[in-house]
Specification:
One of its GO terms (cellular component) is proton-transporting ATP synthase complex. This protein has 83 residues and is mostly helical. It is built from two helices and no strands. It is 93% helix and 0% strand.
Length: 83
């Protein structure tokens, strides 16, 4: 039972990190599609969405760095438990 737990924990961590990163990418895709759609219709709103998109990209970069740090930290803790 302990062996199964040792394999499941890093796998669950990977799934959680993948879901977090995918959600951010999906949000960026949706906002960029809205920006392209609104550009010919309402340029002022399109400018606002471009600004939001830029800020979201910076946030997504910060989240990716933090997620990578957490993944490495937890993985090293999981491996230390086994040694």
């Amino acid at each position: 039972m302990e062996t199964i737990s040792l394999f499941i924990r890093p796998l669950a961590l990977g799934v959680c990190l993948t879901a977090n990163l995918t959600a951010g990418h999906l949000l960026i895709q949706l906002i960029s599609t809205a920006t392209i759609t609104l550009l010919p219709i309402i340029p002022a709103v399109s400018t606002l969405t471009i600004t939001i998109l830029f800020l979201l990209t910076i946030l997504e970069l910060a989240v990716a760095i933090i997620q990578a740090y957490v993944f490495v930290l937890l993985l090293s803790l999981y491996l230390q438990e086994n040694i």
